[in-house]
Amino acid sequence: MTDDLITGDLYAYESLLSADEREELAGIRDFLQREIKPRVNEHWEAATFPMDLIPRFAEAGLVGRSYDTEGSPRGSRLFTGFIALETSRVDPSMATFLGVHNGLAMGSIVNLGSEEQKRRWLPGMLALEKIGCFALTEPHGGSDVALGLETTARRDGDGWVLDGAKRWIGNGTFADLVVVFARDLADDSVKTFVVEKNTPGFTATKMEGKYALRTVQNADVNFEGCRIPAGNKLDGGNTFADVNRVLELTRGGVAWNAVGCQMGAFEAALAYAKEREQFGRPIAGFQLIQDLLARMAGNVTASLGMAVRVAQLQEEGVFRDDHAALAKSYVTSQARQTVAWARELFGGNGILIEHDVVRFFNDAEALYSYEGTREINQLIVGRALTGISAFV
């Protein structure tokens, strides 16, 4: 293992990247450590978003790297995975902001939009001049949203009219482009639309009292007679299977975020164990502390290995829905365990924001639940294993 690899990468998976990718990743890591990390706790505690940093994310090369777009060549899946890991290792909230914009919103337009729609929206999104969000989850529909989608769309002359509500919409309070999924009243199919900021009939209200990913601005979104042009329906978004094409790819991204979250907690715990003294010596010298550290290292390493294999399967073009589901379910479950052990190592200091670990501890709970709960993802895997669906 070379000295410039991150502490938590015990098996040196980063060395699988090309030399050019490693050099660029080092620059991204430096940007995150230097410009983002010093401000993370302040914004997490206040539940505010550092809007002034948004242009810097684009300048640092953190936007659109999963796609072949003009001016932004696609990075390898392994490289973009490590970008997600590095971001989440510093702050899972920032990783979630980028995941929503890059993966869910841009991914919907890249995969479901026409060439004209891509030309219309992607350049501004690549420059982070236009922020995207993804409106699928509803107040009454989470895991069962595919069957119970209540937001409706009806064709009216030269446009569409949307009515309904969405909940838990990350970036929703300040997004310029809202990718919305609604049931067409004419044929009962789920279609995909883009609603632009300030469209009459569209409102977004910040959700309060959220104690995970506090920097992420989640919104309750409402559509009341919200009229949009016909050209704002994504050409390739005509069924819920089309929605799943986007979700399949982004679930792999959540696994990378969960690796970064637990790696950040593990590294914070390791540093603390070396400096914290009790009974006249650093607590890192006690057997029970070393046991906790070794357990955390095992979880991080196993999770990173799974995420790396996910990237390889994506690159080979053989990635399946059950691959995504297993990675999301397993890695986020391991993350919960790792951050709990990290918090335990800190003792009482583990609940102080100044030590970072309580932020990772809380944020792991959100990663565990969003983009498919553990139970739903386990059933996707179970269906693939047995050939029998156990969904209700």
Automatic annotation (TrEMBL):
Protein name per the record: Acyl-CoA dehydrogenase
Domain Acyl-CoA dehydrogenase/oxidase N-terminal: start-end pairs: 20-127
Keyword terms: FAD, Flavoprotein, Oxidoreductase
PROSITE patterns: ACYL_COA_DH_2 (PS00073)
One GO MF term attached to the UniProt entry: flavin adenine dinucleotide binding
InterPro entries to which the protein is assigned, alphabetical: ACX4-like, Acyl-CoA_DH_CS, Acyl-CoA_Oxase/DH_mid-dom, Acyl-CoA_Oxase/DH_mid-dom_sf, AcylCo_DH-like_C, AcylCo_DH/oxidase_C, AcylCoA_DH/ox_N, AcylCoA_DH/ox_N_sf
UniProt record similarity statement: Belongs to the acyl-CoA dehydrogenase family.
Annotated organism of origin: Blastococcus saxobsidens (strain DD2)
Stored SUPFAM superfamilies: Acyl-CoA dehydrogenase C-terminal domain-like, Acyl-CoA dehydrogenase NM domain-like
Chain ranges of the Acyl-CoA oxidase/dehydrogenase middle domain: 133-226
Gene Ontology BP, a term: fatty acid beta-oxidation
Cofactors that this protein relies on: FAD
Entry EC no(s): 1.3.99.-
Domain named Acyl-CoA dehydrogenase/oxidase C-terminal: residues: 243-385
PANTHER family in the cross-refs: ACYL-COA DEHYDROGENASE, ACYL-COENZYME A OXIDASE
